[in-house]
Each structure stands twice: as structure tokens, then as C-alpha cells.
């Protein structure tokens, strides 16, 4: 098993693939001290103020002189980022070579869309009816049989006492979830006096199939549980009419997210997902990249891949919009990574971001969409959303992702309405948290599989999950949603 990895030929640091003892030699450089797994070792002398290079990109600067073989982390380096950045479109778009798509066994909806699950979802419009939604899901599990693969409620605290953009975002996101193809049927539950009114929600939905979407306004019925049971029976009957059939992978939409990252995330799990993304897009499929704050400092990897200046301008608006959001709340735009990230070897936001955006592969960026909006274009789409794991994974689902690939170096158990494939960046964590992890990309660090081989393995797993194989979060029953909130609450 190798001790270190030098990611790019121009890098001034290497990453420890496992805990390395002092005296270990790599590329002619001897470690002066113990280097924890995922952390960086200087490959050359780095002067005070000189940039530290990783991924072929500056990830900060030395705050003191660093000798070759030294451990490089927050005690001797800091971010380069401070203020606003001016972006200029210098296109470097490299189309991918077309590949013949694989297939999966999914469901074909009447509107032509593909689905990878055939479930019934219960969505409360307002938090006041959360317990009604949960009780209906719990008391009607007998309907899960035959082609009906699940019955789930997704409570949340919003839908009332919200104003402005928060109100719009809640309405838009819930509407997008109702339209998700993995839901063969949806029961929407209102209270009756909330400010996200039934009429507003109907306006958000537009045309819908009454066989697939049904509504209860609890204040207007005598017994919401009895009415809900009848509607769920009807939805289950409709869902039973769908069966799995062969569908090309070009119809898949896959969300990409990371969380609980470590120093190996950017050199194993994330680039594996990036290679997967390129493969799927080459087959005509679609992927979605989000977590805008974790693009700060890594814009050079992304911006010039926009297919047009119009898409580039939308990307600039998304990035600057999120920076303005930070500033409005008096927060530092370029905050340091979380304590867990730092412990795992990620020192600066550039370090984290450069590793994070590896998930986007090398494909051209076809579109940029707002929070709560749905994917409209084939290829790679950038979605506006925060770094928060549950909020952004919910947004990926609402955008139309059939499933979500979630890379992690430290592990996390959560799930969202779409199946979540948890991808470990390192083997020790994958072996320790087998109840959480679906795929081990740590083998790329162990030297037993290459990144390309891992990407091919991941593509096979995605097709299996799309064909009905349940992920660990599904087996564990971990499913929830979280909605982005910015403004005041009345």
C-alpha cells in the first residue's frame, strides 16, 4: 500500500494515504514528523507567504517557513481568500466522447419520464399537520405490497409564518417533490389556515394527474385519517399499474454531494464520482452538482466549462448571490472547514472546495438552476444550494435526481426521498460503518483498484440501485427532508 499521493505534477504537498510515521520517505522527501491520514506533507521548502499547491491549484499560503517533509496544516498555512472575485468568461469547453448507454430496470411514467422507485409519498404543506402525515404513513403500511415499494411521510416545520423568498422557496421545493417521478402517487396534506394556501400550491403545481396527486385539507373534513386511508388506497391501486422495464441509463438524473469529508475525499471518492459523472453524461445521462459555498476558491475548476456565456453569467449570479447571502448575515464568506474536516486533513476552504468539485468531473456545464427548480437540460447542471447535507440533498431530490451519490470520509447515516448511495473515501471507515456505507472508494488509496476501475464499479452499482437494489439508508429506514430558510419567521 502506498504511503502518499501527489495529486498533480505541480503540487508542493503530498497527501498521506494512511497514518505515516516520521522517517517515511516519498519521492526523495523524508517525513520530519508523523503525518495523520489525509493530511499533507511538504515536498519542498515553502517560504513564508508562498502559495501551497494541491490539485495543481493554490489552496492557501504558508504562514511561516515550511521545510521539506513537514506536516502542512492550519498551524503553518492559511487561506488566500478574502474579498469578492471578478469572473471573466474564458471558455475551455471539452465535449465528452459519446458512449453507448447501459440500461436499468425502472418504471415508465405516463408523461414519458423514467423512475427508479415506485413509492407513495405523503407531503404536508405545513408543519402543523406533520403528525397526521406520519400517522397515515405508519397506519397504512399494509398498502406496501406488489408493485408498491414504499409508503413514506416527509414532515418539515415550514409552510406558514414565512414571508418573501422563504415562502416562495418552500412552495417551490414542495411542488418539485410532488412532481418527482419516483413517487407513483402523492398525498398532499394541508391544515386549511396556513399562508401557503391550497390555491397557491395548486398554482405552483400547474397541471397534474388526479390519479397520482390527491389532497386533504384537514380543517374541511370530519376525519382526516379515514379520508386519508381512502385516498391512499386509490393511490396504491394506481401505483400497482406500473411494472419495471428496461430503460437506457441516458434517462437517469444523478445528484452528487459530499459531507463529513476528510483529506482522502478529494483524491478517492470525489474523483471517482467525477469519472462516473463523465461516463453517465457520455451515455446521454445527467448529473447535478450543488453546495455553492464549497465552490468558493475552486471556481477555476468550473467556470470556464460553461457551455455559453449565458450559462456562465448564471453561474456568476449563483456564486455572488451566495456570497451576498453570507454578507447579509454578517458572516465571513470564506469560512474555514468544519472541525471534522480539519481533523481529517482539510485545512482551508480552497483545500475543501478543490476536493469537493472533483465530483463534477470534466464535462461541460450545461445549465445553472435555482434552489427548488428542476433539471431542464441533459448533461451537468449546477444547482444553487447550501453545503448543509440534508438541505442540499433534499434540493437535489427536488431537482429531479433519481438517486444521490454522497461521498464521505467520516460517515453519515441520513437519507432523503431519493435513494442515497453512501461512498466512503477510506477503507477503515467503510469497514467500521458497514450499516451506513454502500461503496468503498478507499480501495483507490489502498492501491487495489484504480480511479477508473472504481468509477466503472460505481456505474454498475448505480444501475443496480436504479433497478431496485436498496441502499443502506433505505434498508435502515432513514428518510427525511430539510428546507432552506433565510428570512424571518412570523
Number of domains: 3
Radius of gyration: 23 Å
Strand content: 15-25%
Number of beta-strand segments: 23
* Helix share, percent: 25-40%
Q: List the total number of helices.
A: 14
Structural category? alpha/beta
Quaternary state of the chains: single chain
Distance between the termini: 57 Å
Word description of this protein:
- This protein has 490 residues and is α/β, with parallel strands linked by helices.
- It is built from 14 helices and 23 strands.
- The chain has helices at 130-139, 164-178, 198-205, 224-239, 269-282, 299-302, 309-328, 339-343, 349-356, 389-398, 427-432, 443-446, 451-466, 472-476, and strands at 4-5, 13-16, 25-26, 29-30, 40-42, 51-54, 57-62, 71-72, 77-78, 103-108, 114-115, 119-124, 151-153, 183-190, 213-217, 245-248, 253-258, 286-289, 365-369, 379-383, 403-408, 420-424, 439-440.
- A 7-stranded parallel β-sheet has the order 19-20-18-17-21-22-23, sandwiched between helices. Strands 1-2-5-8 form a 4-stranded antiparallel β-sheet, with no helix packed on it. It has a 4-stranded parallel β-sheet with strand order 13-12-14-15, sandwiched between helices.
- Helix 2 (164-178) packs across helix 3 and helix 5 (269-282) packs across helix 13 (451-466).
- The radius of gyration is 23 Å and the shape is globular.
- The mean pLDDT is 95.
Keywords, please?
single chain, 490 residues, alpha/beta, Archaeosine Trna-guanine Transglycosylase, Chain: A, domain 4, 4-stranded antiparallel β-sheet, 19% strand
Summarize this structure briefly:
By secondary structure, the protein is α/β, with parallel strands linked by helices. It has helices at residues 130-139, 164-178, 198-205, 224-239, 269-282, 299-302, 309-328, 339-343, 349-356, 389-398, 427-432, 443-446, 451-466, 472-476; strands spanning 4-5, 13-16, 25-26, 29-30, 40-42, 51-54, 57-62, 71-72, 77-78, 103-108, 114-115, 119-124, 151-153, 183-190, 213-217, 245-248, 253-258, 286-289, 365-369, 379-383, 403-408, 420-424, 439-440.
Amino acid at each position: 500500500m502506498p504511503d502518499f499521493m501527489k495529486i498533480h505534477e505541480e503540487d508542493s504537498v503530498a497527501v498521506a494515504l494512511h497514518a505515516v510515521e516520521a522517517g517515511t520517505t516519498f519521492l526523495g522527501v523524508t517525513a520530519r514528523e508523523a503525518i495523520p491520514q489525509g493530511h499533507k506533507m511538504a515536498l519542498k521548502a515553502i517560504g513564508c507567504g508562498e502559495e501551497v499547491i494541491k490539485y495543481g491549484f493554490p489552496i492557501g499560503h504558508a504562514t511561516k517557513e515550511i521545510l521539506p517533509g513537514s506536516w502542512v496544516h492550519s498551524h503553518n498555512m492559511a487561506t488566500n481568500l478574502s474579498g469578492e472575485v471578478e469572473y471573466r468568461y474564458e471558455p475551455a469547453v471539452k465535449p465528452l466522447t459519446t458512449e453507448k448507454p447501459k440500461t436499468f430496470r425502472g418504471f415508465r411514467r405516463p408523461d414519458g419520464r423514467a423512475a427508479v422507485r415506485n413509492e407513495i409519498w405523503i407531503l404536508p404543506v405545513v408543519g402543523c399537520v406533520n403528525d397526521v402525515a406520519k400517522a397515515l404513513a405508519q397506519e397504512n403500511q399494509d398498502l406496501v405490497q406488489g408493485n408498491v415499494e414504499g409508503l413514506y411521510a416527509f414532515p418539515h416545520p415550514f409552510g406558514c409564518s414565512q414571508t418573501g423568498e422563504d415562502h416562495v422557496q418552500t412552495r417551490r421545493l414542495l411542488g418539485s417533490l410532488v412532481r418527482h417521478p419516483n413517487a407513483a402517487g402523492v398525498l398532499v396534506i394541508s391544515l386549511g389556515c396556513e399562508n401557503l394556501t391550497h390555491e397557491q400550491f395548486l398554482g405552483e403545481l400547474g397541471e397534474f394527474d388526479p390519479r397520482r396527486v390527491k389532497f386533504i385539507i384537514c380543517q374541511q373534513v370530519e376525519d382526516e385519517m379515514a379520508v386519508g386511508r381512502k385516498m391512499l388506497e386509490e393511490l396504491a391501486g394506481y401505483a400497482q399499474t406500473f411494472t419495471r422495464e428496461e430503460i437506457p441509463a441516458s434517462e437517469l438524473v444523478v445528484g452528487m454531494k459530499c459531507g463529513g469529508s476528510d483529506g482522502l475525499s478529494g483524491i478517492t471518492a470525489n474523483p471517482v464520482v467525477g469519472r462516473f459523472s463523465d461516463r453517465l453524461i457520455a451515455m446521454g445521462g445527467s448529473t447535478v452538482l450543488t453546495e455553492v459555498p464549497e465552490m468558493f476558491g475552486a471556481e477555476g475548476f468550473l467556470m470556464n466549462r460553461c457551455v455559453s456565456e449565458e450559462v456562465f453569467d448564471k453561474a456568476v449570479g449563483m456564486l455572488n448571490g451566495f456570497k451576498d447571502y453570507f454578507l447579509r448575515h454578517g458572516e465571513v464568506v470564506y469560512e474555514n472547514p468544519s472541525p471534522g474536516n480539519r481533523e481529517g486533513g482539510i485545512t482551508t476552504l480552497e483545500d475543501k472546495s478543490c476536493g469537493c468539485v472533483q465530483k463534477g468531473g470534466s464535462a461541460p456545464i450545461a445549465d445553472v438552476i435555482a434552489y427548488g427548480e428542476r433539471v431542464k437540460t441533459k448533461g451537468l447542471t449546477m444547482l444553487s444550494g447550501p453545503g448543509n447535507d440534508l438541505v442540499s440533498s433534499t434540493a437535489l431530490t427536488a431537482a429531479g435526481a433519481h438517486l444521490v451519490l454522497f461521498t464521505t470520509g467520516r460517515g453519515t447515516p441520513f437519507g432523503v426521498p431519493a435513494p442515497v448511495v453512501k461512498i466512503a473515501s477510506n477503507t477503515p471507515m467503510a469497514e467500521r460503518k458497514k450499516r451506513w456505507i454502500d461503496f468503498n472508494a478507499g480501495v483507490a488509496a489502498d492501491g487495489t483498484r484504480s480511479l477508473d476501475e472504481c468509477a466503472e464499479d460505481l456505474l454498475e452499482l448505480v444501475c443496480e440501485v436504479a433497478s431496485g437494489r436498496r441502499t443502506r439508508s433505505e434498508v435502515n429506514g432513514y428518510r427525511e427532508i430539510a428546507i432552506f430558510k433565510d428570512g424571518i419567521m412570523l
